[in-house]
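help with this record:
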Amino acid sequence: MTREELGNKINELRRQRGMSIRELAERSEVNKATIVNLEKGRFTPRFEIVERIVKELGGTIEIK
C-alpha cells in the first residue's frame, strides 16, 4: 500500500465514523498536523502512529 492509499483509507474511515481530524487526533494522541499530512499522503508514518489511528477508527491492520 502506498502512502497515498493509506492516507485515503484513513480519511475514508474517519469520515465514515463522522469523526473530525481534531477528534481523531485527540483520541489517538497524534498531532493534528500529522493526521492532515498522513491523509494527504505527504509522508510515511511510523507503524506505532498508524496503529493508534486505526485503533481509534475501529479498523484493523493486515500484513500480507
